[in-house]
Amino acid sequence: MHPLTVKHVCEIVDGTICGDVMSAAIVDGCVIDSRHVQQGDVFIALPGKRTHGVEFCAAALRDGAEVVIVDASEADACRTPHIRVADAEIALARLGCQNRQTTDALVTAVTGSVGKTTARRMISAMLESVHTGIQSPRNFNNHLGVPISLLELQAGDEFAVIEIGSSAPGEVEMLASIARPEFAVVTNISPAHLDGFKSLKAVQQEKRAIIASLAEDGVAFLNADDPLVAEMEKSAPGRVVTFGTGKTAEVRATGIRVSDDALTLTVDDDEYTVRACGRHNVSNVLAAIAIGLEVGIAPEQINAGLATYEPEPGRCCPLQIGGWTVVDDTYNASPASVSAAIRTAEEFTHCRHRVLVLNDMLDLGEQAADLHYGMGAALASSKLDHIAVTGDFSSHVVDGFLACGGSQNRISCFTSLSLLTAMLGCLLCDDDLVLVKGSRATRMEQVVESLRQLACEDVAARRAA
Fold it and tell me: What's the mean pLDDT in 113-140?
């Protein structure tokens, strides 16, 4: 965060100083979690799942915060000097936007139904080969995460790659107004958050807002392989750069080679390699290459940056656990990402059997049952040797699988996650590939941890024998 006086902070958030606040003090950081307070921070008290941040204002000041910002609705509960604002979340957004306007860094916004985090990490890794900058921490892509990410910008930063998500209409437009990107990337449009959007067209309209937010000198980077993304070109106020595998793409991948843990592709006779699992990541690699070429980074430097890419935990991460190769893809699940996971498992070559462990795809609204049935149908014709399913919609997956010719002995349905994990030790063999997938709320990372435990127990048993 660029340094500001407390008085200037008060002006930006349209607040009122209450009590003995040091108006001339300098703040150079902003946090919403009192446990992360450092000297010189401003602490914004927001509601949490169990308690309100106002309860930690005194602790924040004691730990080095120069000032705390408190929502007017909670001001009576604050026993320390503070800045009172009408809405603390809006205050955070204003500070993030102000910090973004203060910087000369090139701001790139990344949105899409799936792939946002991977694309963001690849773009940042590529840019870091030449430039200094920041990216959104983890999946900080909502009304709190975007301003917090922007507040990480400091003097000397040359770029910021900001992830922008949405679960309801209007969020992308609002977040774009805070981030004010000069570059915008749309990865794809697919069924996700249908509780909020109801249809793919509504999802497309929401993501389109990031393109419409660009100034005339901004650049939109669009996935030409996705028709709903390609249609957004007419919404762009300025220039458009397309990427993909088709002949119409300006940045086009040819000669694609997929191994168990890497992708290699060629763009304009230059070969690029990235340690990423799955063919679906080709579009994410291309987005990074397209931006690199746009800002004048040489292909060899782009390649050097991509070589430093590491996947976010839980996002198609191959792990060696005991005798199994386990692909941890537990962060989230949607029809598009599960389809990508199936293709990823099918393309693994060094394995005995390919096993998919699948829990529910959530937030699909009224289409949830049909989409799970359709996923079962897709699994029936897949090259997977076995599918283990659980969750509220698992019966729909099984119905679709069997109705489309899937063999009964290729699929197992478990009534609970605990029963599934208990049976995995009997189901799996050495050298098997296990891909674990499910929506965030299903907590499928527990399966990965159970596999670690099973592997440890197996090693202990062999030693004892």
Answer: 96
Contact 64, 41 (CB under 8 A): yes
Calculate the alpha carbon distances from 391 to 133, 137, 342, 414, 417 in Å: 41, 30, 18, 8, 8
Q: Would the pLDDT of 459 be above 80?
A: no
Compute the residue count for the chain: 465
Reported as a single tens digit per residue, the pLDDT across 257-270 is: 999 989 999 999 99
Other CB atoms within a 10 A radius of the CB of residue 248 amount to: 10
- Say yes or no: domain 4-87 is CATH 2.60.120.260: no
The DSSP line for 95-139 is HHHHHHHH--SEEEEEE-SS-HHHHHHHHHHHHTTT--EEE-STT
- Cα-Cα-Cα-Cα dihedral sign, residues 110, 113, 117, 122: negative
Coil/strand/helix, residue 17: strand
Cα dihedral 330, 335, 340, 343 in deg (nearest 10): 110
The pLDDT-based confidence of 350 (bands split at 50, 70, 90) is confident
Q: In the chain, where are the structural domains located?
A: 4-87, 103-306, 317-464
* Residue 306 and residue 122 in contact, taking contact as beta carbons nearer than 8 Å: yes
Q: What is the pLDDT of residue 51?
A: 92
- Which CA distances in Å does 346 have to 270, 341, 354, 424? 28, 9, 7, 20
Q: Which CATH class is domain 317-464?
A: alpha beta
The enclosing H or E element of 84 equals strand 82-85
Structure-token match 């435990």, residue found: 453
3-state helix, strand, coil in the chain (%, to 5): 40, 20, 35
Percent of the chain at pLDDT > 70 equals 98
Q: Which amino acid is at 244?
A: G
The tens digit of pLDDT for each residue in 90-126 reads 999 999 999 999 999 999 999 999 999 999 999 999 9
Does this chain's domain 4-87 share its CATH topology with 103-306?
no
Cβ atoms 445, 357 nearer than 8 A: no
pLDDT digits (tens, 9 = 90+) for 373-426: 999 999 999 999 999 999 999 999 999 999 999 999 999 999 999 899 989 988
Q: What global pTM score does this model have?
A: 0.93
Contact residues for 296 (Cβ-Cβ < 8 A; gap 6+) = none
Residue 461 clears pLDDT 80, i.e. is over it: no
Under a CB-based contact definition with an 8 Å cutoff, are residues 120 and 110 in contact?
yes
Instruction: For helices 282-294 and 116-127, give the axis angle rounded to 10 degrees.
Output: 40
Angle (CA) 428-431-436 rounded to 5° is 55
Separation CA 460–CA 195 (nearest Å)? 47
Q: Nearest Cα to 28, choosing from 72, 62, 53, 64?
A: 64
Class of domain 103-306: alpha beta
